[in-house]
């Protein structure tokens, strides 16, 4: 019986490791895409796990992971954002930047405008 429990524990550990790797891969891809869409530089091309917890959902218990990442607006300085993954689904994404009101148009740099033409 103890051999069975040992094997079950190893399988559970393997599943957790693979699930964590998949969630981190998805979080990295989401951050890279979101930063690219906003014209930001996704620094270090990675996310860092900050917190892990369990959460009850309508589908049962899910693992909730909070990741932090760094980005740059102008290529100078570092800012931090975070992303929360519930299992392998996106729950929350934040760059920590103030949102622009609807009547404000962001100013683009001359190089950015030339690339769009």
TrEMBL record:
Q: Which domain of life is it from?
A: Bacteria
**Tell me, what's a Pfam family for it?**
DUF3301
Q: Which InterPro entries match?
A: DUF3301
Would you tell me the protein name for this molecule?
A: DUF3301 domain-containing protein
| Species per Swiss-Prot/TrEMBL record | Sedimenticola thiotaurini
């Amino acid at each position: 019986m103890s051999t069975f429990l040992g094997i079950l524990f190893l399988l559970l550990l393997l599943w957790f490791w693979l699930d964590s790797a998949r969630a981190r891969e998805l979080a990295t891809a989401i951050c890279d895409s979101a930063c690219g869409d906003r014209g930001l530089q996704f620094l270090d091309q990675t996310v860092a796990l900050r917190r892990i917890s369990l959460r009850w959902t309508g589908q049962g218990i899910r693992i909730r992971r909070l990741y932090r990442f760094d980005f740059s607006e102008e290529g100078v300085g570092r800012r931090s954002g975070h992303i929360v993954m519930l299992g392998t689904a996106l729950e929350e994404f934040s760059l920590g930047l103030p949102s622009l009101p609807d009547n404000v148009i962001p100013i683009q740099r001359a190089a950015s405008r030339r690339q769009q033409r």
